């Protein structure tokens, strides 16, 4: 897992940590420049926790252990100040809003890149390549991500579906060929419909892939593979959807290109055929 943007990751995942892990997290955020020179034992003493809590905290951050945390902190401290997340203020002028929206998008992408696990991306791409059918589901803004997945993989000649009706999707997955894949999309990892479908997909032996904000959850524990985006801090006006959707589409783009590169000649041929078909349809509409 990438180790960039660790401080932002700690801030955003704090509510999902245990109380003992939160003690460690608050200490790291308070004096990150001191932590890089500490031992596990010193860190435990200074944060009023235990060595085991320090190790668990590191693993909750997606790191292998305390040494990797120190490397990640060193990388963060060596960078320029992060762009940051911003919320809307009363009677704010449009120019400032443009800058804030850009800042939020850039920060979300940076944090998400820091969470990228290249090995998982490659395994998911290979699983989708081998799957006879792909099903994607999300609610609200996540439904747009599901539709993007279906549209992209349809262009590559794959049987890909993003049904909004849970009953239709359930029937389709019940009769899906062996090796088919289900992608459950929920930024909060708590959408009950997605969780229900994930359990059904697991029961029917589909390859299961969760696509959530970073952190432990029942949804991620049910899945064969987990794709994570950054968790943006809470705000009064800026909803999670505005911060997460850029990162979600970015991850899908990365996955799409890795998938396409498995058999690049085949992928190019399929994309060209779909492009030609759409152009032919447009020309016919104009002539008619």
TrEMBL record:
<dbReference type="GO" id="GO:0003700">
    <property type="term" value="F:DNA-binding transcription factor activity"/>
</dbReference>
<dbReference type="GO" id="GO:0003677">
    <property type="term" value="F:DNA binding"/>
</dbReference>
<keyword id="KW-0804">Transcription</keyword>
<dbReference type="InterPro" id="IPR000281">
    <property type="entry name" value="HTH_RpiR"/>
</dbReference>
<dbReference type="Pfam" id="PF01380">
    <property type="entry name" value="SIS"/>
</dbReference>
<dbReference type="InterPro" id="IPR036388">
    <property type="entry name" value="WH-like_DNA-bd_sf"/>
</dbReference>
<dbReference type="GO" id="GO:1901135">
    <property type="term" value="P:carbohydrate derivative metabolic process"/>
</dbReference>
<keyword id="KW-0238">DNA-binding</keyword>
<dbReference type="Pfam" id="PF01418">
    <property type="entry name" value="HTH_6"/>
</dbReference>
<dbReference type="InterPro" id="IPR046348">
    <property type="entry name" value="SIS_dom_sf"/>
</dbReference>
<dbReference type="InterPro" id="IPR009057">
    <property type="entry name" value="Homeodomain-like_sf"/>
</dbReference>
<protein>
    <submittedName>
        <fullName>RpiR family transcriptional regulator</fullName>
    </submittedName>
</protein>
<feature type="domain" description="SIS">
    <location>
        <begin position="124"/>
        <end position="265"/>
    </location>
</feature>
<dbReference type="InterPro" id="IPR001347">
    <property type="entry name" value="SIS_dom"/>
</dbReference>
<dbReference type="InterPro" id="IPR035472">
    <property type="entry name" value="RpiR-like_SIS"/>
</dbReference>
<dbReference type="InterPro" id="IPR047640">
    <property type="entry name" value="RpiR-like"/>
</dbReference>
<dbReference type="GO" id="GO:0097367">
    <property type="term" value="F:carbohydrate derivative binding"/>
</dbReference>
<keyword id="KW-0805">Transcription regulation</keyword>
<feature type="domain" description="HTH rpiR-type">
    <location>
        <begin position="4"/>
        <end position="80"/>
    </location>
</feature>
């Amino acid at each position: 897992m990438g180790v960039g943007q660790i401080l932002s990751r700690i801030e955003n995942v704090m509510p999902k940590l245990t109380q003992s892990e939160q003690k460690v997290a608050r200490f790291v955020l308070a004096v990150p420049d001191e932590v890089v020179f500490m031992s596990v034992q010193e860190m435990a003493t200074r944060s009023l926790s235990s060595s085991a809590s320090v190790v668990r905290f590191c693993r909750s951050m997606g790191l292998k252990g305390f040494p990797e945390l120190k490397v990640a902190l060193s990388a963060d401290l060596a960078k320029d100040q992060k762009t940051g997340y911003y919320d809307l203020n009363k009677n704010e002028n449009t120019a400032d809003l443009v800058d804030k929206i850009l800042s939020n998008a850039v920060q979300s992408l940076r944090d998400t890149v820091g969470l990228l696990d290249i090995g998982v991306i490659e395994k998911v791409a290979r699983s989708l390549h081998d799957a006879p059918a792909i099903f994607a589901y999300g609610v609200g803004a996540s439904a747009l991500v599901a539709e993007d997945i279906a549209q992209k993989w349809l262009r590559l000649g794959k049987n890909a579906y993003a049904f909004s009706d849970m009953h239709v999707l359930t029937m389709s997955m019940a009769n899906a060929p062996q090796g088919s894949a289900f992608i459950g999309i929920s930024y909060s990892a708590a959408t009950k419909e997605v969780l229900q479908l994930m359990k059904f997909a697991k029961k029917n032996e589909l390859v299961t892939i969760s696509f959530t904000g970073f952190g432990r959850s029942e949804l991620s524990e049910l899945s064969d593979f987990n794709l994570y985006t950054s968790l943006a801090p809470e705000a009064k006006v800026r909803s999670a959807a505005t911060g997460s959707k850029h990162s979600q589409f970015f991850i899908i783009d990365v996955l799409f290109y890795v998938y396409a590169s498995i058999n690049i000649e085949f992928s190019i041929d399929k994309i060209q055929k779909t492009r030609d078909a759409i152009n032919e349809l447009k020309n016919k509409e104009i002539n008619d």
